[in-house]
């Protein structure tokens, strides 16, 4: 066993922490009450203030440079670092926060100015998002949704060749905790010939992995599949809130627009590519009969180690549950192994036409449903288009989301012999339409 | 006749200038050779350096404040002004550049530091684009394209209710003159069962109006149709380059993606809402039998004065034409009157779900084809999907664009008794695939 995997921290809440042990060290943007936003790293129940550590002279050389990039009011400069620089910062942070760090007493003396209790801090969107792209690579989700329209032929002919994606709205990406206002829009009620206007009646969540792009590429220069992994800085959770009734009426022929652009929520912590290394695995074999990816999407290393094993969870907490002090109820348990394409394949496909990516661009994976109903990542699938209500343990039912409902996404990586790491929460409460 | 309409400028090249007479005064970002980009206003063959004018004390009060916002390296701060502030700057510029300006000699003494010859300047993208949205409101284009797939029923049922739009890629928006590299991608060759990969063989232009968003709106607060006009700062030309073969294979079910995201070109000058006032007109009546817009999209003032009469032109210049010193050939003449929805309706629809717009967001109108083949705004339409080659006057033919082809968009507003104003050019030359 690599000693790194059992290292403990002098920040004792980190040891055994479900999300943020020493082995995770995700980056984010935080502000203690009344102070300005700045870069931090989650460790147990605390946030390590990267800028304060820089000023205290706790870093050297490359790590110092990387820490300066990670200390600002957005992580865009941190995302622009190369993997070597990011790794130097990670190694320095591991050493500083290790229980045997020689600088431990000096850091403890800095108190709250170095380690802020997370519960007392406000968390912000990690970066200024340049462009946001939402993919559709959860094959069970694509199949389930396709079945609602085409029971005998759910997947379109391009699905197994093209990592399907579309451009999303960057201005309405929010961090976990921001309210989600029920959108209004045009819908075509069943059986009617003319549309009507009003609040969406079929508001849904979508369980997705978010991918933060690191270094970008120049216009016209595609990122080869062998190099693509280096361009991913880290991951988060992403809820692609969707108004199904608006979507059904508007989406032909150019795709989803207002049915998605009212809100997208991401978790505040960027779990770095380095922290995720132990949880890499082989891309699951394609079912017999599926085509081989075209050569530009195929790389042996990517096939062998380009997938990720991240457990994903959706929880729902209704107003009644809050009023009765009941905890949120899990409504789905899924995994990133349900992706038909690797993250590297998404990066390469996105740039193969010469499109430029930039540090701080965000990808959504698409909804990551599993094969069975208890793993479906949207209510559209769980309730079969609203026809089979979801039964909640307290006796409530849901076809789609109601005002006051809170949706919480969580993610965790487990591996025998390694410390588990988590993503923290990605949550939002539905507010009534304005 | 309003005296403003016949005013002349002491910048004599402005008088009778096809694009930039005194009555236009469009804003842009320019740099003289070796200098940093900054805000300017086109007047005849010159660019008026707004920052230099500020420093020379040529503005007062509101105009001075507005000029400072228009003097930076992008126009985002200018776009964030309200219409009153923009108008104060326009009035000040009109007075300064009028042939009877009392400051004329002082300005002339400043020479090139105030008025730079446009030919000696580099022009830049006017603003940092936050989000780019492409609409589809050219009804003849939608009908022509629809006919290629559904001859008997070209328009989908939502078309006359929903101003159809989708999110585009912001990172690949370029200013006129930037090269356009032929994209590579997956395509399904006719008659084949499996896709192939390579340079697009069906590269096309799309003639569109570009709309620069001024003041934005808060999340959750829709912009009412009565207020929407105020949120448009100005207009430009936009070429939504499209790889038809990539588009046909990738676009189901989520819309165009890599077939568009390799490049979008805009003209460098932002023709302000104020300069366009004389060219406003009533929205053309909907054909008998078409539904009335839903109430949220309907406003009497918008119906009476919300359309624009702008003549639009596409020109093509091939390598052979350049080699033989032949001018670019017009391949289409169209008009913004081919929009099924007003600009205000686009703004209102985009925000009706609570989506926030920001200063510097860009909309494309969608391809603005007319009813007849000589007014079609894309080769897809002109050549009926590549089946009827376009004959050029020098004996060449085109189905789609070839390497070396230059596409030039132009626009002009005419009205009896008013000085004509133009948009300048939006051009790009196709470069071979990398």
Automatic annotation (TrEMBL), chains A, B:
Cofactor (UniProt): Mg(2+); Ca(2+)
One Pfam family from the record: FAA_hydrolase_N
Domain Fumarylacetoacetase-like C-terminal: 140-411
SUPFAM superfamilies: FAH, Fumarylacetoacetate hydrolase, FAH, N-terminal domain
Record keywords: Calcium, Hydrolase, Magnesium, Metal-binding, Phenylalanine catabolism, Tyrosine catabolism
Pathway involvement of the protein, from the record: Amino-acid degradation; L-phenylalanine degradation; acetoacetate and fumarate from L-phenylalanine: step 6/6
Enzyme class, UniProt record, top EC level: hydrolase
The enzyme's E.C. designation: 3.7.1.2
Domain Fumarylacetoacetase N-terminal stretches: 23-126
Family per record: Belongs to the hydratase/decarboxylase family.
Entry protein name: fumarylacetoacetase
Upper taxonomic lineage: Bacteria, Pseudomonadati, Pseudomonadota, Gammaproteobacteria, Pseudomonadales
């Amino acid at each position: 066993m690599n000693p790194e995997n059992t290292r403990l921290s002098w920040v004792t809440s980190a040891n055994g922490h479900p999300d943020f042990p020493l082995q995770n060290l995700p980056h984010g943007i935080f502000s203690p009450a009344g102070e300005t936003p700045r870069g931090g790293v989650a460790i147990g129940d605390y946030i390590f203030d990267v800028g304060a550590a820089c000023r205290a002279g706790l870093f050297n050389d490359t790590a110092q440079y990387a820490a300066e990039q990670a200390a600002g009011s957005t992580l865009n400069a941190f995302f622009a670092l190369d993997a070597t620089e990011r790794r130097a910062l990670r190694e320095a942070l591991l050493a500083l926060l290790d229980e045997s760090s020689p600088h431990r007493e000096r850091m403890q003396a800095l108190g709250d100015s170095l380690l802020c209790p997370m519960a007392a801090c406000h968390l912000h969107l990690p970066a200024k998002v340049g462009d946001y792209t939402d993919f559709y690579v959860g094959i069970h989700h694509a199949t389930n949704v396709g079945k609602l329209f085409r029971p005998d032929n759910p997947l379109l002919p391009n699905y197994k060749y093209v990592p399907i994606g579309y451009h999303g709205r960057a201005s309405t990406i929010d961090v976990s905790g921001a309210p989600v206002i029920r959108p209004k829009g045009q819908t075509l009620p069943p059986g009617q010939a003319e549309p009507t206007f009003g609040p969406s009646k079929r508001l849904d969540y979508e369980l997705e992995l978010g991918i933060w792009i690191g270094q970008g590429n120049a216009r016209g220069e595609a990122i080869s599949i062998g190099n693509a992994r280096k361009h991913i800085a880290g991951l988060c959770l992403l809820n692609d809130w969707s108004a199904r009734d608006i979507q059904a009426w508007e989406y032909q022929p150019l795709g989803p627009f207002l049915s998605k652009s009212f809100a997208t929520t991401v978790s505040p912590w960027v779990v770095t590519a380095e922290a995720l290394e132990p949880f890499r695995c082989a891309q699951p074999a394609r079912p017999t009969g599926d085509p081989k990816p075209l050569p530009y999407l195929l790389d042996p290393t990517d096939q062998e180690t380009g997938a990720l094993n991240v457990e994903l969870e959706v929880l729902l907490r209704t107003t009644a549950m809050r009023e009765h002090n009941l905890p949120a109820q899990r409504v789905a348990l899924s995994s990133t192994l349900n992706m038909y394409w690797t993250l590297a394949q998404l990066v390469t496909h996105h740039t193969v036409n010469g499109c430029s990516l930039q540090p701080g661009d965000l990808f959504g994976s698409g909804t990551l449903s599993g094969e069975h109903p208890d793993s479906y990542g949207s209510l559209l699938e769980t309730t079969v288009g609203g026809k089979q209500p979801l039964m909640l343990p307290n006796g409530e039912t849901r076809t789609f989301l109601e005002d006051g409902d809170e949706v919480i996404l969580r993610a965790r990586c487990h591996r025998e012999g390694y410390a588990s790491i988590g993503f923290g929460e990605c949550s939002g409460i539905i507010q009534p339409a304005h």
